[in-house]
Amino acid sequence: MEAQAIADAFGLGRAESLSEPVARGELGQVRRFVTDQGTWAIKESLEELRGDDVAAIEWSSAFHLACWQAGIPTPQPRQAGDRFVADVDGELVQAYTWVDLADPDPWLDAASVGSLLAAVHAVRRAPEGGVDEWFQAPIGEREWRAVLKASRAAAAPYVDRLAELLPRLVEVESILTPMERVQTCHLDLWADNLRRTPDGGLCVIDFDNAGPADPARELAMLIVEFGRGDALRQRRLHDAYRDAGGPGRLTGRTDFGLTVAQLHHIGHRHLRMWLAARDSESRARSLAGVEEFLGAALLLADVDAALGAVT
């Protein structure tokens, strides 16, 4: 991509420098872009985006902008005319104000995380569309066993641990039920996307998965991610959220369905990617994801402990 073409698309002034990718996820990468008007984050997709994909990003970006306008600490999404996604030299890109961020840290202050989640949930936007299976559907015993069989045939280094965990992965999926479309939620507030800034504050990034959800289930997800299995941290996050006016209310195991569904779909994706990898770099990246999934699997006992800590 030509740097000035990016600047022209988003009205960012005169281009000065465009870095190589400084951050990379499974679906996108980010470059640091400097112009005479400031410093920006330019996000490129690593997968081909279809019309429906672009429409979904436009919608989630509008929610992101509403959160920024409401005072949520988050980079400002820039618009290219009346759109958030611009076609620059055949690449679909997004632009944001640049924010310096610390590395992902699930040990952020639990009360601050709870208060910030309540503020995000106070940005009420009517849900649009259905809930994706990624956020509510089980992988299912049949598919787990198929992945185990393929992993065993490929002599995967993780196969014994997957075999040992499989019955408990299937067991915890029993709590999954369809999620109510209460309001728009971020839906991806793992430690990768809720980070500390150099001044000690918090910042929310990456709204691309935002969509219809039950805020109680998103609250449960953050209790798992930032509670770290510690009952005191879980209560502090939960109580700070309630004290700040957060609308979510945990009432039972099913409230942890969003967490289980996402963790299982992420883990399943890494397992399938390891099996499909054709080079050492891809296989190593996928194996790291598999190791993280198997090493910190959320089991039914963990769900019950977290629920007991906050109710």
Count of the separate structural domains: 2
| CA(first)-CA(last) distance | 52 Å
How many E-type strands?
Answer: 10
CATH architecture of the largest domain: Alpha-Beta Complex
Low-confidence stretches: none
- Structural Rg: 20 Å
Question: Percent of residues in helical segments?
Answer: 40-55%
Describe the structure.
- The chain has helices at residues 3-10, 51-69, 110-121, 141-153, 159-172, 215-227, 231-243, 257-276, 280-295, 300-310; strands at residues 15-24, 28-35, 38-45, 77-78, 86-88, 91-97, 183-185, 194-196, 202-204, 211-213.
- By secondary structure, it is an alpha+beta fold.
- The chain has 2 domains: 3-97, 2-Layer Sandwich (Phosphorylase Kinase, domain 1), CATH 3.30.200.20; 110-310, Aminoglycoside phosphotransferase (APH), C-terminal lobe (Aminoglycoside 3'-phosphotransferase, Chain: A, domain 2).
- The strands form 3 sheets. Strands 1, 2, 3, 4, 5 and 6 form a 6-stranded antiparallel beta sheet that branches. Strands 7-10 form a two-stranded antiparallel sheet.
- Helix 3 packs parallel to helix 7 and helix 4 packs antiparallel against helix 5.
- The relative contact order is 0.13.
Short description:
The protein has 311 residues and is of the alpha+beta class. Helix content is 45%, strand content 16%.
